[in-house]
Design goal:
- The protein is mainly alpha-helical and 113 residues long.
- The protein has one domain: Winged helix-like DNA-binding domain superfamily/Winged helix DNA-binding domain (Arc Repressor Mutant, subunit A).
- The chain is 47% helix and 9% strand.
- It contains five helices and two strands.
- It has a two-stranded antiparallel sheet.
- A hairpin with a 4-residue loop joins strand 1 and strand 2.
- Helix 1 crosses helix 4 and helix 2 packs across helix 3.
- The longest helix has 14 residues.
- The radius of gyration is 13 Å and the shape is globular.
- The termini are far apart.
- About 7% of the residues have low confidence.
Length: 113
């Protein structure tokens, strides 16, 4: 189970998403001014289906850190993960509300390139 500070970090990361305009393109990683949680959510949204290692390479973090961030985001309700023997499926829970009241999915759709 994630600590309360992990939930707070995930909530703050996503709250920060609602205040930053993301200019991500397919060829560029998310802007570094986003928190690691926010950068991972943005990367998942723009490039679904990558491995944990590939997400780490894309945003400049280790696979171990990606695993920790995914755990935080899942515990906070922002993503759902499903592991099989050969793959990990990550789904963004778009109906989850950001701390400001905006739905995560709506925010991501408005900022998709």
């Amino acid at each position: 189970m994630m600590s309360q500070s992990g939930c707070v970090r995930a909530a703050v990361a996503v709250d920060y998403l609602s205040t930053v305009d993301n200019n991500d393109t397919d060829s560029n990683p998310p802007p570094p001014l986003l928190s690691p949680h926010g950068r991972l959510l943005t990367a998942i949204h723009h490039k679904p289906g990558l491995t944990q290692t590939e997400y780490g390479e894309r945003i400049g973090l280790s696979r171990r850190t990606i695993i920790r961030l995914l755990n935080d985001l899942e515990q906070a309700g922002y993503v759902t993960t499903q592991a099989t023997q050969t793959a990990l499926t990550i789904e963004i829970n778009g109906d989850t509300k950001l701390p400001g009241g905006t739905a995560l999915g709506g925010w991501l759709k408005r900022h998709k390139q």
